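Table 4 source record.
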Amino acid sequence: MSTPTSSSPRTTASSSTKVDRRRTLPTFPATKTCVVCSQTFQALDRYQGARKLTCSPECAGRRISQQKKGKTKPLAERAGRMVPCAICGTETWKPDAWLKRNTETFCSSRCNGVRRAEELVKHSHKGKAGWTDASLASYREKMTGPNNPAWKGGVTVFKKHGNYAGVRYVRAPEWARPMARKDGYIMEHRLQMAVLCGYLLTRQEVVHHENHDPKDNRPENLTLWPSNRAHKLYEWGKMEEGASCRLPESRQTSWTMPEWCGASPSRTARSSPDAMG
């Protein structure tokens, strides 16, 4: 029996020619067709190529309307009625559930703002614009000094950046207000030096702490210099010609911060600058 000379169809295909069955990814931008108006548009990336079906926001809105068609009730079949606006009288449709919760109806946010403004005018006298001199004086008396609910003894510590120790600030008395900040606080060591010297310090004068502790404001630890230059030269062991410590010899070594400048009640007032007041 002779063998067939022709090969079967399965063996006729050449094994040298292989078919690439891998999925070919589209390149972007790609051209797509709008499902609403059938116009072509460009999909710029892979996300738009998979998700974007319309060419414009208008077509997207029309597509949403088509999808909702038949799913929403007509306006005549809904539970509600036409009611006039309380400001301009324009009739608008409101559901019954909304009318149960609200006593007035407005056609727009503008009309709603007009009614809210009418209500706010009734309370305008409660603001500071309606205050009298008597009410302002009463407010200041209630919120100043120990009467203020946030009062903490009149002493605060200003913390600087880095490893520098904080400086103590106290409430300045009336005679020392020219030396104080706008909020009425003054450095404790400058106030003590003004009491010891008997006059107000200038902005150029510098109070030096001998032990370099800004919280140690004992009189024997304080010295007064006419300028910051003389102060720094003294710290480096040098003396500027004509500059010296301006603290008088008769300084009160037993002086402590009195209570009239806002110190804590534990301190006892031993002196007060009556001559400067």
